[in-house]
Design a protein that fits this description.
It is built from 6 helices and no strands. By secondary structure, the chain is mainly α.
């Protein structure tokens, strides 16, 4: 195994660990980490890529994304709630300038626009 493939494999597993933690920790997103794992496994290990695609919890999420860039409505809602909670907590605990808060909110708005403009289901050809 080359160093590059090993690097992808390590990042894939670390990302999957963070995604798994995100299932129970509401402030840590699951979807982006699982999708990063899928990408890393596709570059490093056919065996782990196949395992992730057939996984009971993560498989549908990865397959939906790969087949049509789909983010299911439940994932969109969970992401939105997590982001709002995280921002609220951060802004209440940290003494940030108005400019910093505006920049953070603008960045988050871009992320939310991206999430909510993705399809929520796979289109079936009629």
């Amino acid at each position: 195994m080359t160093y590059k493939k090993l690097g992808y494999l390590v990042v894939g597993w670390l990302s999957l660990a963070l995604g798994t933690i995100g299932i129970v920790l509401p402030l840590l997103p699951t979807t982006p980490f699982v999708l990063l794992s899928a990408y890393c496994f596709s570059k490093s290990s056919v065996r782990f890529q196949r395992w992730l695609l057939t996984h009971k919890v993560f498989g549908p999420l990865v397959r939906d994304w790969e087949q049509g860039g789909v983010i299911r409505i439940k994932a969109k809602i969970l992401a939105t709630v997590s982001i709002v909670l995280m921002l609220s907590l951060s802004f209440s605990l940290l003494n940030l300038s108005v400019l910093a808060m505006g920049g953070i909110c603008a960045s988050v708005a871009c992320v939310m626009i991206y999430i909510w403009t993705r399809p929520s289901s796979i289109k079936v050809n009629e």
